[in-house]
Amino acid sequence: MRSTFAVLASAFLLFSASPLHAQEDMDPNAGVSGEHDFNMYCASCHGENGKGNGPKAFNLTLKPPNLTTLTERYREFPRDRLARMIDGRDPVPGHGEREMPVWGVWFKAESAQELGGAEGDEDSVQRRVDNLIDYIESLQAK
Question: Which residues contact 66 (CB under 8 A, 6 or more apart)?
Answer without folding.
Answer: 50, 51, 52
